[in-house]
Amino acid sequence: MIRFLSKPWLLLSLAASLATSACSGSGDGVVLFSVDDDKALGTKVAAKTDSTYQASGQLLQRSANPQVYQLLDGVVNRVLNSGQLTYRNEFPWDVKIIKDDNIQNAFATPGGHIYVFTGLIKYLDNESQLAGVLGHEIAHADRRHTSKQLQQQYGISLLLSLVLGENPNQLVTIASELGQLKFSRDFEREADLYSVKYLNGTGYYACNGTAGFFEKAQKEGQTGGTPEFLSTHPDPGSRVEAINTEAQTEGCTGRTVDNTNFDKLKSLL
């Protein structure tokens, strides 16, 4: 159970964090609230996101789709158990599917709640690509990029107020806009490289799976529509090269994965 700190203690912690940030000169890259607050904020945002998609009938429930989630969890758990995550045991790490074949996107809340659209799963060619994209979103949460980006966009005071149960209307806004949150290039590159590390740690997936997705999207973007994922995760060109270079360095590009379960997953959606 998460214990919420009283406001005076939060203010003291914030003051200490601000002082540390000021001394280090790296305020833009520092999360000015605790991991427990990160989890609390993620829980609130995820609950609001769930209710929104439940109301529209788009959130695939685990109880009604056990085989779908069994197949998806098989991919997710390989990535989570790669031994490379910082907050593997601290964050809840649940992945949910949103039914919309027209949207090819995925996003992460603070604290390890991941959402992926059916349109993205159906767009991908193989399980290594799915693992790569999920690894990328897991990295955004595990490296606390989502929290840092929200902090930069909305300010620490507002985020702390959400943790304390205040500003419910603003919580609705953040939850509705999270899928369109745009990260800095540094955050995107770091998520790419950690995706490689995660997939390498599985000992199973070709660890440049994310690059395969980007390459497909680039080719199709030249002739028509571009996946929404690229509008929120821009500049794939140099990132493809960086992903492949890192994967070659780690020697994990040539793995061949049986796609039977992946094909079954797509057929069930």
From TrEMBL:
<keyword id="KW-0479">Metal-binding</keyword>
<keyword id="KW-0645">Protease</keyword>
<dbReference type="GO" id="GO:0051603">
    <property type="term" value="P:proteolysis involved in protein catabolic process"/>
</dbReference>
<keyword id="KW-0378">Hydrolase</keyword>
<dbReference type="GO" id="GO:0046872">
    <property type="term" value="F:metal ion binding"/>
</dbReference>
<keyword id="KW-0482">Metalloprotease</keyword>
<dbReference type="GO" id="GO:0004222">
    <property type="term" value="F:metalloendopeptidase activity"/>
</dbReference>
<keyword id="KW-0862">Zinc</keyword>
<dbReference type="GO" id="GO:0016020">
    <property type="term" value="C:membrane"/>
</dbReference>
<feature type="signal peptide">
    <location>
        <begin position="1"/>
        <end position="22"/>
    </location>
</feature>
<comment type="similarity">
    <text>Belongs to the peptidase M48 family.</text>
</comment>
<protein>
    <submittedName>
        <fullName>Peptidase M48</fullName>
    </submittedName>
</protein>
<feature type="domain" description="Peptidase M48">
    <location>
        <begin position="72"/>
        <end position="246"/>
    </location>
</feature>
<dbReference type="Pfam" id="PF01435">
    <property type="entry name" value="Peptidase_M48"/>
</dbReference>
<keyword id="KW-0732">Signal</keyword>
<dbReference type="InterPro" id="IPR001915">
    <property type="entry name" value="Peptidase_M48"/>
</dbReference>
<dbReference type="InterPro" id="IPR051156">
    <property type="entry name" value="Mito/Outer_Membr_Metalloprot"/>
</dbReference>
<feature type="region of interest" description="Disordered">
    <location>
        <begin position="218"/>
        <end position="239"/>
    </location>
</feature>
